[in-house]
Write a structure and sequence with these properties.
Elements: E1 12-16, H1 33-38, H2 44-54, E2 70-73, E3 78-81, E4 86-87, E5 95-96, E6 99-103, H3 111-120, H4 129-132, E7 134-135, E8 138-139, H5 143-149, H6 152-175, H7 185-204, H8 222-229
Parallel strand pairs: 1-6
Antiparallel strand pairs: 2-3, 4-5, 7-8
Organism: Trichonephila clavipes
Protein name: ATP-dependent DNA helicase
GO molecular function, one term: helicase activity
Length: 230
Amino acid sequence: MFSFSIHERFPAVTHLDIHLENRRRIYFDPSNVRRVVENPRNTTLMAFFDLCHKDEFAASLLYEEIPGYYTFNKQNGTFQRRHRGTLVEYHSGLFHEHTLGIIYAIHPNNRECYHLRMLLNVVKGPTSFESLKSVNGILYPTHKAACFALGLLEELWSKFKDNFMVDYVRDFQRHYPDANINAHLENFSNRVLFALQDVLLSIGGNTLPHYGLPSPQVINGIVENLNRVF
């Protein structure tokens, strides 16, 4: 079976742990429960924080970029520099290989961990959970608050709002060909928010603000017309 192409995959993939502070997952049985609880296994996330403390180059990287330059030693729970691959220019003894780092997915209902993942995707070289929640010298109480401070949640809606509205605008033009589209953009935006909220309510039972998105506003007139049309 080793002759089949599926036996070898390129690039290699390293899955990266994610968990809240003091909430790492541990595995034990009756014979080792005390030892495991008192000395829990170091996760790749904790090892990443430790690495950024002592390695200047690592502190310039995102979490997902680490496996390209370092390998995780499961025995001692640390990241170690690669010893083969392409030599990194201006960094003696540092090598790079084409290895993808993939942070485990988190359901949006797990809010703090979900926002922690968002921070790990944009913050380079964090040394602790606390440093991830610090923005411009201000320590925020939650990962979600830190995401707001960085503009991550607001930018998410602003970036994709126009794309979400395309179908509503097209259908509206078909039913109201003489209407001024620009005069009704706020209404289309609201229709998108209503639709998104319906989906999120069906999946997790939560409204848009739960995920850091704006609430839909009921606007008289055109929203009622659109509801009748669609």
